[in-house]
Every structure is written in C-alpha cells, then in structure tokens.
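Late entry, written up from scratch paper. The run itself happened at the end of the previous shift, but nothing got recorded in the book at the time, so transcribing now.
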Amino acid sequence: MKSIKQGTPSLWVLEFEPENGSIKPYVPGDYFFIRFKNADITTEGHPFSASSAITSDYSNSIEFMIKEAGDWTGSLQNVNVGDIATLEGPYGNFFPDDVQESEDPFVLLAGGIGLTPNLSILRHEHEKNSNRRIHLVWGLAIEEDMFMIEELETMKAANPNFSYDIIFSNEEVEGFPHGFITHEYLEELGVSSLYQSAKFFVCGPPPMLNASKTLLDNQNVPDNHIYLDEFGF
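Output as recorded:
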C-alpha cells in the first residue's frame, strides 16, 4: 500500500505500488480483485475498477476509489501504508482498443462512485493531450459525495472539447440541478445530439445502470455504442 486517504467521508482512495518489478499493464475500465495479506481486514478478494490510468502520475502504481458499503469496505479504516495486498487481474473490456483508437465522441454517464472507470478513461485521454469531444454526466445523491472537481477543471482547461455536468438526486444543492439522468436532462445538456455518433460508457448502481440502458435503447443508440460496467454497488 503506497497511500490511503479519504476522498469524502465515505470514500477511500487507495494507491498500490509493486514490492518488486512493474505494475501489470491495464487499460481504463479494467478491474482487479484486491486481497489484503497482512492488514487488519478479512482476506477475501473483492473486485474494483481502477480509477487511475497508466500515466506519468501513475507510472508504476495503481489507484482505486472505494465507497464504504459493507463490512469489508467499512474496515478500510484499519488498513495502513505498507500493508501488503495481491491484485488479481486485470479483467474487463470496458474500453476496447478500437474505441480507444477511434475519433468518436465519448459520453460518460456515472452514478456516484461509478465515476471510477470513467475517471480512468478521462485520465487516459488527458495524458495523451486528447482534444476528443467528451461529456461527463455525473449523478450524485448528496453534496458530500462530490469530489475530484479540481482535477475535472484541469482537464476542462486542457481540452476545450471536454465538459462535465453534475446533478443531485437526494438533496437540493445550490448551483446544480436536482433530479436524475433522464432523456430530458441529456437533451437540455445537448448530449442528445450525440446519440448516434458517440460511444456511451455507463457505470453506477444497478437502478441507475438499468435506467440509463433503457434510456439509450429508447433513443435508438446502437448497442455496439454502449459500454456498461455492471458491478453491483
């Protein structure tokens, strides 16, 4: 464990580096099973998508953002720098090679900690100085869940074709809309004009994931333009 910190009161940010050698190559959206060996936490493996990408900031380390949602994640407060874990992986095909190499626009739909694999995509694109059109739409429950704004602003300054919008569902937050990611909201943002041309990357809790897939199907977005991270949260 290279570092561990809290991104929000219920979110842990873990960064690992290898004891020897190099981090195994992976691509945005890939996930790993994390198993701690000598920490004060149970040893069963749990799958998490990487929030980092292979960039100058993470040249030989890998980062995960994990929300407290049960006994194991609630025990991350017991983990310390220097603790040993094994990372089994990578697994997944959230961000295929042909999509990476295309010039298509990207629409990233994230619910809560479902930002994680989409953040990996954003970091990948930022590292290569991409000018791709990218629109992140991030649904959050409460203001306390909001994080990473400074980094998103840095990406926005570097890529004039990147934009992001945040909507809150469980409380009114000054300066932000209240509700859910719907067709009407995407239409308001101008995202609906990308239904036929963009690649859509969706990750979030099962209700959000299912609602987003239904939304995109109803708007006749081609199935091969939709990439889902279907982990439960």
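The chain has a mean pLDDT of 95.
(Scratch paper discarded after transcription.)
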